[in-house]
Amino acid sequence: MLEKYFLETASDEELRELFALIESYPKEEDLEDLFIPVFERIKKDVDYKPEEWESVVADILNTRNVVPITARRSVWQRWWVAASVAAIALSLFLWLPWKNDPAPKPGLVMVPAEIPPASDGAMLTLADGSQILLDTVKDGPLVLPGGVVAKVSGGKIVYEGNSETTTYNTVTTPNGRQFRVVLPDASVVWMNTSSSLRYPTRFTESERRVELWGEAYFEVSEDAKKPFYVSINNESEVEVLGTKFNVNAYDNEPMIQTTLLQGKVRVNARSIANGSRQLMSQAVLTPGQQAQIEKKKVNSRGEPVLVVERHANLEQVMAWRNGVFHFDGMSLAQVARQLERWYDVEVQIQKGMQDIRFGGSISNQISLQQLLKELEFMGIRGRLEGERTLIVSP
């Protein structure tokens, strides 16, 4: 299958099987032993320059994080995957001599410190405005005003028991941080980077209501007597009884997306002109559907536009929860916004590149520098200026 791949005669099914096998190998040494004789047989029939290979052999394991999700034959995708395979095939020749020579050579520019992927962490803001950095709280109980008891552990805060009074807490995740909130009714909210969730420490007898800015995945405890409401950026609202759904409502994204995985929800689009919250349109979703509200678009009557995508890309929607970047069909501008939130950087794109389209998926548990190596296979080069500015060029 490797020979067929390099010679461009592999079928889609063979490509999928090939990369599944590559993923299954626990050690890169085993792959090297398999790839070397194959490479020796076919190297005269493929056209890759040594300097192109050298740029991708520095980190062998990361080449196995690239998982093509389709076998489309566009030029950039063939190069992206071929470079990954070539890197592993040639690693024995190009990488082994470097192992015992880690010291930098005189005159070389030192590479900036690795920028890690997002990790657990958040800021808790109490009703009186005081704040607690949850990153620094040791595992154990946390006694809050009003008799509220919460426990912080394993990247989440859990509210235990009933508080004496109803107060509001807000959990905020900055760029580069994620967190989980277990609400008083045992509903769980996974918060993505650069997001905020405001909620009561005790739900009323008639309803459960929270407010979200950014992105979060909800698993709501079923309670037919207490409907659950999520107010989204004060622009729309999700009404549920018991379900699993994802909401993406970042300020710098063009639309609010509510995607249903399980159960049933009603999405309400509201006008907030002149401080009013008048209901304009609504849609009931079934699993696999996505409600889309375009932020800057209204119909002829000045009402917000709500569109239902009946076959949402659930793999892409849930990628952040599943530990991957899912770039299929995304523009470079969309990818850049994800990188800014995930790695806490500012991305500057050279003119004319914003609409370049991507495909495939890759682990989001690697450093920014490791990710940039993979993007080079697609003709995209990124360089860091200062500590947190990423310049993207062809």
Largest beta-sheet details: 19 strands, mixed
- CATH third-tier fold name of the largest domain: Jelly Rolls
The CATH class assignment of the largest domain is: Mainly Beta
Distance between the termini: 31 Å
What's the number of structural domains? 3
DSSP summary: helix tally: 9
Question: Would you mind describing this structure in some detail?
Answer:
The protein has 394 residues and is an alpha+beta fold. The chain has three domains: 2-98, no CATH class; 119-316, Jelly Rolls; 323-393, Phage tail protein beta-alpha-beta fold, CATH 3.55.50.30. The chain is built from nine helices and 24 strands. A hairpin with a 5-residue loop joins strand 14 (244-249) and strand 15. Helix 3 crosses helix 6. The two termini are 31 Å apart.
Summary tags:
394 residues; alpha+beta; Jelly Rolls; Phage tail protein beta-alpha-beta fold; 3 domains; 19-stranded mixed β-sheet; 3-stranded mixed β-sheet; 9 helices
Briefly summarize what is shown.
This protein is an alpha+beta fold. It contains nine helices and 24 strands. The strands form three sheets. It has a 19-stranded mixed sheet that branches. A three-stranded mixed sheet has the order 21-24-23, covered by helices on one side. Strands 20-22 form a two-stranded antiparallel sheet.
Reconstruct the topology from this structure.
Blueprint: H1 2-6, H2 12-24, H3 28-42, H4 50-54, H5 60-63, H6 75-94, E1 119-120, E2 123-125, E3 131-133, E4 140-144, E5 148-153, E6 156-160, E7 168-173, E8 177-182, E9 188-191, E10 195-200, E11 208-219, E12 228-232, E13 236-240, E14 244-249, E15 255-262, E16 265-271, E17 278-285, E18 290-298, E19 304-309, H7 314-317, E20 324-326, H8 332-343, E21 346-349, E22 361-363, H9 368-376, E23 381-385, E24 389-393
